[in-house]
Amino acid sequence: MNQADPTYSDNGFDPTFFADCTRKGSLGSRANSIGSTSASSVPNTADCMTDNDCSPTADDEDSDYRHETSYKESYKDRRRQAHTQAEQKRRDAIKKGYDDLQAIVPTCQQQDHCIGSQKISKSTVLQKTIDYIQFLHKEKKKQEEDVSTLRKEVMALKIMKANYEQIVKAHQNNPHQGKGQVSDLVKFSLFQNIMDSLFQSFNSTISVTSFQELSACVFSWIEEHCKPQTLREIVVGVLQQVLKYQQLQQP
Q1: Quick one: pLDDT band at residue 214, thresholds 50, 70, 90?
Q2: CA within 13 Å, CB half, 236
Q3: CATH code reported for the domain at 68-137
Q4: Which UniProt keywords apply (predicted)?
Q5: C-alpha dihedral sign at 12, 14, 17, 19
Q6: Is the pTM of this model over 0.70?
């Protein structure tokens, strides 16, 4: 050991050095005590992270999650209700359509009375409706043909009316012209020739198998051979024949 070290005095021990060491040891013990106390007073961060009570936003997050879940369930309920209402509305519209068809179509009403309280099936209603529409189309076509025929008859009657008016007007203007020039025999011959000409077409057209067929043939013959233009051609032809016959009879 070095003899020059001030730690040691002449008798081998320095009291000053001992006092400094004692003071330093006391300070170190106090620092360690303060450090341990501080460490024990600080909470464990890992434990707080795993404990929901230690997190300040845990309740807010749970509330947001519950609110979002409730909103999704409410949205699904609203969509389900809207879909149910739309489906019910569609079914009501279809049912109303079938009821309207059943009320409009006469054959459905007749069948309804026949079967009593039994409900008519939808397929039957549709089939009856289709049949009734086809029947209406046929009736419409027939009525259009009848209207066309009546219009032709009206036109023919107007032409005949105009011709008779001209004849009457001509007689009124010249009441004495041609008086006594045509004998009754000539008139009868003229009428006979006209009827003979008409009878030829009538005899070749008419069938007397049944009254219904006879009626149909008569109407068809009138429409075909008794048109104003056809009658006019027949009368003109007969007049020409009578005129030629009279010319031949004259000396």
Answers
A1: confident
A2: 6
A3: 4.10.280.10
A4: Activator, Coiled coil, Cytoplasm, DNA-binding, Nucleus, Phosphoprotein, Repressor, Transcription, Transcription regulation
A5: positive
A6: no
